[in-house]
Each structure stands twice: as C-alpha cells, then as structure tokens.
Amino acid sequence: xxxxxxxxxxxxxxxxxxxxxxxxxxxxxxxxxxxxxxxxxxxxxxxxxxxxxxxxxxxxxxxxxxxxxxxxxxxxxxxxxxxxxxxxxxxxxxxxxxxxxxxxxxxxxxxxxxxxxxxxxxxxxxxxxxxxxxxxxxxxxxxxxxxxxxxxxxxxx
Length: 157
Fold this sequence. Notes:
Number of strands: 3
Order of helices and strands: HHHHEEEH
Structural class: alpha+beta
Strand content: 5-15%
Mean pLDDT: 90
C-alpha cells in the first residue's frame, strides 16, 4: 500500500506498531533510499518519544533505538550516500556538555536538514555545513521526503 503524507505523519505521531512496521517494510523494499528513510524516521520518532517518557526504562530503550538507527544510517550512508545525493556527517556542538556530537543529514530533493545529538561521534565524515537554525521541523521534513519516495515509486519510469 503506497502511502501519502497524511498517512506517514499519522504513523509518525501515533503508537500503532503494526502500521509502523508495515511502513518500514514498504520502505525497505525500495532499496538503499528506503532503508535510509526507515532509519531517519525511526531515529527521529524514538528521539521525540524519549524526550517525553517519564520512566527511565522506556526513555533508555528509546534512546538505545535512536542510537541503533543512527548507527544503521552511518553504515548505509557510507555505502550509498553519494549515489543517493545525501550530504551528511558529524560536527561538535560546543554548547553541549554530554551529548556534544551532532549527526546531520541533508535530505534529498531539497527537503532540508535533520540532526541528532549523540554522546559519541560515529564513523563518517565531518559535516561541511552548519545547523540551519530551524527547530522542530525534522519530523515534517522526514515525512515529506518519505511521501516523495512513494510518489516517485508510483510514477512511471
């Protein structure tokens, strides 16, 4: 089932595990771009959830999933980032004491930048740019990009 932006946003904002897994399966079937999209989506969603969880068990699990997703992203972007035209990398945030490393991904098709703070710098290049200064738009950018992927998949070659 090819999805539109409203469906993708609803999955992002909701807690329906079956719908989320179905979205991931559809994206993964698209190849490297879809796998990158799954991990950007999951890192963002779990990061947002971790910020609102009160119990340390759930918060810790969400941050672990975020880090696992970032690690998957790094692997995929090292292998396919140039082919997918995705600029990405790491930069230190001198204003942060603990989670001082920022992992940046510039989404394709001019969808904008998303970023994630982490405690440790991962593998990969130094990010050549700077934070775009726009707060709390990552989820919308990610969902719009995923909708674009589905639209491209629907379009005749």
